[in-house]
Specification:
Number of helices of chain A: 5
Largest interface: A-B, 15 and 10 residues
Oligomer: heterodimer
Shape of chain B: globular
Order of helices and strands of chain B: HEEEEHHEEEEHHEEH
Low-confidence stretches of chain A: none
Radius of gyration of chain B: 19 Å
Largest sheet of chain A: 6 strands, antiparallel
Mean pLDDT of chain B: 89
Largest sheet of chain B: 5 strands, antiparallel
Structural class of chain A: alpha+beta
Mean pLDDT of chain A: 89
Structural class of chain B: alpha+beta
C-alpha cells in the first residue's frame, strides 16, 4: 500500500477512506458505525460488527461495544488495536478508582480518563470513542471523544466512517427524552442505513441498553436489519 | 503522665519496649501547646474555627491565617506548628489539583482525607524525618453524593470522620462542650444548622479562653454549607461579630446564674474579623 502524502500539490483521490489512508499496512481497522443515545432512565449504545484490513473483512461479527465498568460502556472506532488497548487501560484505572473511593465511578470520570489517554497520545493513536452509561449523578449520559482527544458531553453521539452517511437521518429523527424502545429502534435503523452505504460497516448490529438496574445485550442478525439495499 | 523516653525517643523509627513511638507522641504534645481549633459538622454544613493567640501587639490583624482553602469544595484548619501545617495544606492542594486533572471531578472527601493521612504518616516512618507537629481539620463536600464531611488528621497519621472535633490547648473542655450539642441525633433533621454552629463554636472558644487566662486572641472562622453555595469560605464578619456578642452574653448569663465572680472582660482584646 502506498501512502498518500498529506498535502499533495494537486488533489489526487485514491478511492480510499480517510481512515484507511492513515492505517499502517496490514493494520486492522474498525472502520465502523457507532452511536449512543440517552433515554429516560439510561443509555442505548449500538455498533456494527465489521473489522477490515483494506478490502478483506477480518471479522464480520466483532464486538465493538466494550464494558468499562458495571454501568459504563464504550463504542470503539478506528484502529482495533489502539481502541482495545485504550479500553483495557481505562477499565483498569476505573476499577482501581472504584476501590479507592468505595463507589462506582461516574460516566464523566470514565470519559475524562479516556480523553486524557487519547489526547496525550494523539500522535500515536487513531481512535474515536463514544463513552456512555448510567450513574446516579447525571443519570444517562453520552460523551463523544473523536480523533484529536476532545471530550464533549452530547445529547446523542455518532461516530466511525459510516456515521457520515447518517447525520441527516439522526438529526431529523432524534428528539430529547425518548423512551427506551424509541431509542433502541432509532439506533438499529440508523446503523442499518449506515451499513447499507459504508463499505467499512456491515455484519450484525450489536446493542447494549444500560440502566440503573443493569445491562441488556442484544444483536440484530445481518439478514434481519430494519433497512437494506433495495431488493432485500 | 510520666513517660520517660530513656533512649527510645530519639528517632521516629524506634519502638519503645512497651510498643510506643515516642516521637509521634511528642509531636501530638506540640499540637497540644497551640491554640484551640474546633470543627463542627452541622445539619447543613461544616464550620471550622481556630483561636489564634496574639503573641505580639505589632501583628497585623487578620494576617497569619490558620484556615486555608484547598479547593472550592474543601478547607483545612491548622493548629500546632503553623509552618508544618502549611506543608500539609500545600500537599492537600496538590492532591486536589492532581485528582481533578486525572479524573475530571472534585476529589471525594474520604479520598482526600486518606491521602493526607498517608502523607502525614510517611513522616513517622523514617529516622531521618520528624513527624508533623500539626493537626489538620478537613472540611469537605462530596459533589457526587452531595454529602458534607469533617475529618481530623493527627500527627500520627490517623484520620477519622467526626461530628465534632477539637485540637490544641483547650481540646478537653471543648470536647465536653461539643458533646452537649445536638450534632449526633438519630434523626439528622434535628441537628443544629450552621448559623447555630457558628454561635456555639464562638461560645465554646470564649468559654475556654476564660479558663486559660491567656493572651488576647483573634478568632478565625470558616464554613462550607448551603449558604456558601457548598464552597469553603470565611464566615461573614458581621456574623462572627454577632456570634461573639451572643457568646459573651450567654457566658455572662450562665455565670450570673451560678453566682460566680464576674470576669474582667476588659482584659480581652478580641479583634473580630
Amino acid at each position: 500500500m502506498n501512502y498518500q502524502s498529506y498535502a499533495p500539490s494537486t488533489y489526487e483521490h485514491d478511492g480510499k477512506s480517510a481512515e484507511t489512508r492513515n492505517l499502517k499496512p496490514g493494520e486492522l481497522s474498525t472502520g465502523t458505525t457507532i452511536m449512543a443515545i440517552p433515554f429516560e432512565g439510561g443509555v442505548v449504545l449500538g455498533a456494527d460488527s465489521r473489522v477490515s484490513t483494506g478490502t478483506y473483512v477480518a471479522n464480520r461479527v466483532s464486538d465493538k461495544v466494550a464494558q468499562l465498568h458495571d454501568s459504563i460502556w464504550c463504542c470503539r472506532s478506528g484502529s482495533a488495536a489502539d481502541t482495545q488497548a485504550l479500553t483495557d487501560y481505562v477499565r483498569h484505572y476505573l476499577s482501581q478508582l472504584a476501590v479507592e473511593t468505595g463507589r462506582a465511578p461516574t460516566v464523566k470520570v470514565a470519559a475524562h480518563l479516556m480523553r486524557k489517554l487519547c489526547y496525550e497520545n494523539k500522535d500515536n493513536l487513531m481512535a474515536g470513542v463514544i463513552v456512555g452509561g448510567w450513574d446516579p449523578v447525571e443519570k444517562g449520559s453520552v460523551y463523544n471523544i473523536p480523533l484529536g482527544g476532545s471530550c464533549i458531553k452530547m445529547p446523542f453521539a455518532i461516530g466511525g466512517s459510516g456515521s457520515t452517511y447518517i447525520y441527516g437521518l439522526v438529526d431529523s429523527e432524534f428528539k430529547e427524552a425518548l423512551s427506551k424502545d424509541e431509542a433502541l429502534s432509532l439506533v438499529k435503523k440508523s446503523i442499518s442505513h449506515a451499513m447499507a452505504r459504508d463499505g467499512s460497516s456491515g455484519g450484525i448490529i450489536r446493542t447494549v441498553v444500560v440502566t440503573e438496574s443493569g445491562n441488556e445485550r442484544e444483536y440484530v442478525p445481518g439478514d434481519q436489519l430494519p433497512y437494506g439495499p433495495a431488493g432485500w | 503522665m510520666a513517660s520517660s523516653g530513656s533512649g527510645y525517643d530519639l528517632s521516629a523509627s524506634t519502638f519503645s519496649p512497651d510498643g510506643r513511638i515516642f516521637q509521634v507522641e511528642y509531636a501530638s504534645k506540640a499540637v497540644n501547646n497551640a491554640g484551640t481549633a474546633l470543627g463542627l459538622k452541622c445539619r447543613n454544613g461544616v464550620v471550622l474555627c481556630v483561636e489564634k493567640p496574639l503573641l505580639n501587639k505589632m501583628l497585623l490583624p487578620n494576617s497569619n491565617r490558620r484556615i486555608h482553602t484547598v479547593d472550592t469544595h474543601s478547607g483545612i484548619a491548622i493548629t500546632g506548628f503553623v509552618s508544618d501545617g502549611r506543608q500539609i495544606v500545600n500537599r492537600a492542594r496538590e492532591e486536589c489539583s492532581n485528582y481533578e486533572e486525572t479524573y475530571g471531578t472534585k476529589v471525594p472527601p474520604t479520598v482526600l482525607g486518606d491521602r493526607l493521612a498517608a502523607y502525614v504518616h510517611y513522616f513517622t516512618l523514617h529516622g531521618s524525618l520528624r513527624p508533623f507537629g500539626a493537626t489538620a481539620l478537613l472540611a469537605s463536600y462530596d459533589t457526587e453524593t452531595k454529602e458534607h464531611c469533617l475529618q481530623m488528621i493527627e500527627p500520627s497519621g490517623v484520620s477519622y470522620k467526626y461530628f465534632g472535633c477539637a485540637a490544641g490547648k483547650g481540646r478537653q473542655p471543648a470536647k465536653t462542650e461539643l458533646e452537649k450539642l445536638d450534632i449526633n441525633k438519630p434523626d439528622r433533621g434535628e441537628n443544629i444548622d450552621v448559623r447555630e454552629g457558628v454561635k456555639q463554636l464562638a461560645r465554646i472558644i470564649h468559654l475556654l479562653h476564660e479558663e486559660g487566662k491567656d493572651k488576647p486572641f483573634e478568632l478565625e472562622m470558616s464554613w462550607l454549607c448551603e449558604e456558601s453555595g457548598w464552597e469553603h469560605k470565611g464566615v461573614p464578619r458581621d456574623l462572627i461579630k454577632e456570634a461573639v456578642e451572643w457568646a459573651k452574653k450567654d457566658i455572662a448569663e450562665a455565670e450570673e446564674s451560678e453566682s460566680e465572680e464576674d470576669d474582667d472582660d476588659d482584659d480581652d482584646e478580641e479583634m473580630n474579623e
